[in-house]
Amino acid sequence: MKRNSLSFRIISRVLLFCVILFLLTFTVYYIFARVTIEKSTRENAQLLAENAILKIEQVLKPLETIPDNLSWMMESGALPEDSIFAFLESMVRNNKSVYGSAIAFEPYMFNPSKQYFAPYACRTENETRSFQMGSAEYNYFIMDWYQIPAMIREPYWTEPYYDEGGGEALITTYSVPFYLDIKGKRTFAGIITVDVSLDWLTEIVNSVKIFDTGYAFLITKTGTFVTSPDRFRNRIMNETMFSIAKESGTPELREIGREMIHGKSGYRSINYDERGKLWVYYLQIPSTKWSIGVVFPDKEMFADLRQLNGFVLLVSMLGLVLLVFITIRIIRKLTEPLSQFAKTAQVIAKGNFNTELPVITSNDEMKELHDSFEFMQKELTNYVANLKETTSAKEKIESELRIAKEIQLGMIPHIFPPFPNLPEIDLFASLVSAREVGGDLYDFFLLNDDLLCFAIGDVSGKGIPSSLFMAVTRTLLRSVADHEKGAAETVATINKTLSMNNDSNMFVTFFLGILDTKTGKLSYCNAGHNPPILIRDGKEASFFSFSKSIPIGLFDTFDYTEDTVTIHAGDQLFLYTDGVTEAEDIDNKLYGNDQLLKVVSEHASAIPKKLIEEVNKDIAVHVNGHVQSDDLTMMSIIYHGRKH
Amino acid sequence: MRIADASIHNVLTSVVVSFIALQANAQLTKLSFAPQWFPQAQFAGYYVAKDQGFYKKAGLDITIVHPSSSISAFDYLYNGKVDVISTFLMDGLKQRAKNVPLVHVGQFSQHSALMIVSKKSGTVSTLKELNNKKLGIWGYGFDDVPRAFLRQNNYKVTLVPVHNTVNLFLMGGIDAMTVMYYNEYDQMVNYGINEDEMNTFFFSDYGFDIPEDGLYCLDKTYAAKKAAIARFVKATLEGWEYASKNKEYALNLVVKEMEKAHLPNNKAHQRWMLDKVIELIEPGSKNVEKGQLLEQDFHNALTILRNSSDAGNLNTRFSLEDFSKATK
After folding, report:
1. Does this chain's domain A79-197 share its CATH topology with A412-639?
2. CA-CA distance, A452 to A638, in Å (whole number)?
3. Is B278 helix (H, G, I), strand (E, B) or coil?
4. Same domain, B200 and B176
5. Quick check: B7 pLDDT over 50?
6. pLDDT tops 80 at residue B1
7. Quick one: which H or E segment has residue A528?
């Protein structure tokens, strides 16, 4: 995701939570399932073993009654000795489960001349036959089937053995001691047996299946395998639990074997071969005292669970993917207006306030956002309309001001040199107005052939009023001044006229000088204006000294005084307004009188135009681009004297 | 005449057959041999020597014939089916004492593996406690040493002859039993009795370290095939030597022989037997070479025979030299 977007952040958090929740649930489920499966498998194994034993006992139990009955018959004399062979034969014939049966007597018991007497009947391929099997060659007294029950005086199931007839049939013999009444004394007389083929038993045990490869096996009292699944076929009658335990180095197997031959039941696990952990449930067969074991690999017990786990994991993964997908969709859908709003905001920012807003049908935060946008659009439209109005009004005013300024500038003379026919004088003046129309003025004109009248002033305040006041002052000057009036009288007249109708209390600092070009006599009146600079003979510059007076337009009766000074050929007079000395740099530092005097002194020999240009340049350096706040007005007059 | 014709025909046929056989096995001397019991690791040395070609290398063509439950090795020897048999020293001596023209030609086992075993949970924890108890005992040459021992100690014991299983002992029908350390003792272990659950009494610890497996043949056979028999003993020792160094291989041979004879077998037991039998071949503290009979052992064994209940019927007046061709 390019953007570390809202949906990404929400999804990553939701997903993390979901995964944790899932893992937790899964673990609990898994543990519970394992425990349950273990329990039910154990019960199943036990049931299988019990069932197999039940089936085995159904065959063996009735067989056990045969020797018991025979024993009773012998003891009670119900079986006449001359019919033993025939009886055994018919008994074997009539009992499908019986492979053979014998009544083996103790030495000389049946007949004092016969050491061996053991009538035996057995099945052959398609008949039953009987014979006496004892002989010097077949000394049955030391055979297990005879010797063991004879010595322990208890019924005994022999270890299985292969049929001597060469058949593959495994046979076991159930032997029971019997007694005869000899001279009133119950005397041990021999052993009665039934031989049982174990084919059916193998079938029963081999039919036990559990999981994929789980099986059952049967061992005798010596731990010898009687049955085993096909792949362990070689174990049958060859191996015991203990020989396998030894050969495979599995002592636990020996422990299990011992429990089994000792008639115990149990449920144990072992690691025996490549099958990994194996579980064994074992239980004794009550009649023969043999033991049956049900074996299955641990991994098969949980195979279904593993499969289920795989399925659950798959479904969960799909679920999570779906969750992510749906969450993305929902969040996208929810936040889509946001990006639309963002785009709309950009369009609005470009000035298109009426752009269409995203359609919000829900009544939620989005709706609020939509309403806010709508409100903003309305407000912006109103504001801009107002602004347009204001701006156009302002533009109108500004254009009027510009015109006013042009008019104002047009009112002051700006043709230089002004008096080409008057060689005694060279004069230059400049007025650089500030952005707004200002109140500075300068003027010069000849009163007659010899007298030059010149003035410089600065109206208080700025703007149209000042400029109008300036225009009035200048008009008054032109109309009032004549060759008969002195400088002070002219100033007083102008003051009187201005003061009379000055409701707005505006005033003008004003300097008026009248120079007699014939004599060099300069009479002047300074009404609160900055002192001009006089440069003597193009060398020495100094501020004028004069009587102090107030600006004009304040008091109509104020008595202005006139001063006189004689200037000589080569002297130059430099006049200026406070726009020059109060020009500010960016730190509001003023240009100042000293700097002005210094610059003027440096260019004392320059002609007026050059001098004014130099001062302008120096001021420009001082303000260094800072906005000009006041009109910059300068005027310089050089007197050459009259040539005779 | 018809009979004569038939005889001549028979003679001719047998000559031709013999000739063909001789051609086939050019220089090899034929010898047949019967061990005293069914195939098992007790005879691994013979199987190995044959399989490894040690006999052939010694110029011998050896046939191994195992006895069956009805025909013993002695039967084979007497009816001429085999040239050489293996049997216990006591058995060989006894046959000789019965004036059988038997000669001892080799001695592999130098020690007695006979022992008495009782269950610790039972009533016999010392040999003295055998008095008035039932002791299972094997017949056929296994019983001489136990009987001599019991007589020497004057124990009154009920001897119960047992056939060929240990089940009577396992079922508690007898209090103790004489067994071979390399065989029945381990069988009991393989039937689930732990070694620490048994009391063991080795006859060798009580002055009866009588050697067991040795080789015997009839006098006339010895006279005719003396050199071949000597080579047979030597090659068999080589077989044992090889078996002791290649036990897994030897075991596989044993199992193969057992399977051929349809005998129950398991490797765990045969492995034990092989280990123990190989130990018996080592003279140990006895000053005798492998394959030879120590004079002292001969006299000890003869003494046992002379003191046996059967002594009256036996002629025990023969010397070591008369009896054995495998002694210094």
Report:
1. no
2. 12
3. helix
4. yes
5. no
6. no
7. none
Q: Does A539 touch chain B (CB under 8 A)?
A: no
In b/e form, how buried is each residue of A62-80, taking b as 16+ CB within 10 angstroms? Answer: ebbebbeebbebbeeeebe
ipTM above 0.90, yes or no: no
Q: Which residues of chain A have pLDDT under 70?
A: 1-4, 164-167, 435-437, 643-644
Domain locations along chain A: 8-58+201-301, 79-197, 412-639
Which tens digit of pLDDT belongs to each residue from B28-37? 999 999 999 9
**A590 in Cβ contact with A582 (< 8 Å):** yes
Q: Write the pLDDT tens digit of every residue in B184-200.
A: 999 999 999 999 999 99
Dig out the tokens for B25 from the structure.
């096995």
Q: Quick one: which H or E segment has residue B64?
A: strand B60-64
Q: Are residues B98 and B123 in the same domain?
A: no
Place of tokens 């939509």: A370
Topology of the domain comprising A412-639: Phosphatase 2c; domain 1 (3.60.40)
Residue pair A470/A441 in contact (Cβ under 8 Å)? The answer is yes
Whole domain around residue B196: which residue ranges? Answer: 114-206
Q: Which residues of chain A are within 8 Å of residue B163 when distances are taken between CB atoms?
A: 139, 142-144, 147
Q: Does the domain made of A79-197 have the CATH classification 3.40.50.2000? A: no
Interface contact flag, B191 A242, Cβ < 8 Å: yes
Percentage of the residues of chain B whose pLDDT score is greater than 90: 80
CB atoms within 10 A of CB A259: 19
**A243 inside 8 A of chain B by CB:** yes
Q: Residues 6 or more apart from A526 whose CB is under 8 A from it?
A: A510, A511, A512, A544, A546, A547, A548, A549, A563
Mutate to test the interface with A, among B171, B174, B263 (most CBs of A within 10 A): B171
Spatial CB neighbours of A136, under 8 Å, sequence gap ≥ 6: A116
